[in-house]
Amino acid sequence: MRWRISTATIALLCGCFLITSLLIGNTGWTEVKAFGFALTTLSTGFAAMICFIGWVVLRFATVQVRGEQEEHRFHRWLVLVLVSILTTALADHYLLFWLAWVTVSLSLHQLLLFYPQRPRAQLAAHKKFIFARIAELLLGAALIWLWYHTGTTHISQLTEQGSLVNQQVPAVLLVLVALLKCAQLPVHGWLLQVVEAPTAVSALLHAGIINLGGFLLLQFAPVLSDAPLARWLLALVAGLSMLVAAVVTMTRISIKVRLAWSTVAQMALMLVEISLGYYTLAALHLLAHSCYKAYAFLSSGSAVELRERQRFVGLALPPFSAVIVTLVSVCSLVLITVIELDLLTYVAPWLAVSLALSLWLASYFERFAWADFIPAMAIAMIWLSCYGAALWLLKLHLEFVEAPFVVGLDLWVSSVLIAITGVYLWLLYRPQAAHSSKLFIMLNAGLYLDEWATRLTLTLWPLRVSSTTTGVPR
Fold this sequence. Notes:
The protein is an all-alpha fold. 72% of the residues lie in helices and 1% in strands. A hairpin with a 2-residue loop joins β1 (32-34) and β2 (37-39). α3 packs antiparallel against α4.
């Protein structure tokens, strides 16, 4: 009964938040600000997304933990996590925002230890706990700095302050918090090891909680926009994280671990978009990634079966000529489109769209022929139109401050995207080359970037595995 009540309640809240977001964004309704909360297009839209993810996870968890000895405890902490995330999304007062942020982490810690007899689950929870406390201290310092220098205690009042004195300080602190929350390198290891938790927890973490770093920067966009140092820090760390995570994903066999690495890469791409000032694009990315990742984790069992079928059939790689022609054609198509529509400012976001779309289309070629190429380009135009329409609608719905153009950021991000594509094609088409095997082994080990965090965690918080169990792992 408790699961049904929770599911029905979260579904009702999802509808209410979605309607509120649409009314505020499209009908001129006044934003509601009272008791430390603020109902804005961004906050209610994010809350609606969290409710939808929560509804899906609750329905899945109803079946997954049925009959578990600690089912009641799992339900209690899961509901608390959802309530905490919603409070964080809607909070406008600094103190309320910080308290809700801390509560999300502490309640999630209990879910990560739902099977405490698993050493890797303990290790992941301990790593997450340590990095979360650091992030919370940095967030508290940023909020105190903003309060002391601006006199404001509400996030919504930041847009009224204009340029802040020494704006770099709180912006850098907020960027560090987002990098820690989004599990960017080299503090990413805990995200790869939380797959030991129940699947419902992994889905909620990768589809909802991990996005709080991006949501934080979107909420504090007025602080970040005029802070070039913070934007460069965000672009450099997230860009390197995206490069490493994207190529490491290719080398992993476990479906859940591949999804975890892809989350690191996707979060990095979202943070890169924020560093460029593409806040609306980052919001669209956040929404799309949440829905996809929840589906991917909850259907990971089916993915294993599909992968085995593909290996049995023995699908061949597309011809390299098809990849090159598709890359050139799609990049040209996107470039012409954005120039004609006067949408070209930064090159990097459109380059990312072009490369992703090209590689996806090329994977459908078993041989290169113009009879296959023309339908593929038609599909590319359809997907590009859908992407443009979604971005246009979201721009009408959300309002963000303008961020100054920085040409260096564009060149850096474009270089990272080209490097990812190059390494991907090299490993795919030259696996037997002299350096490919060594590179593959290093990438499969994640370049050993998590070793320091493991040693530090085991030193500060050694594992103590209990012989008692809390249920049969599923």
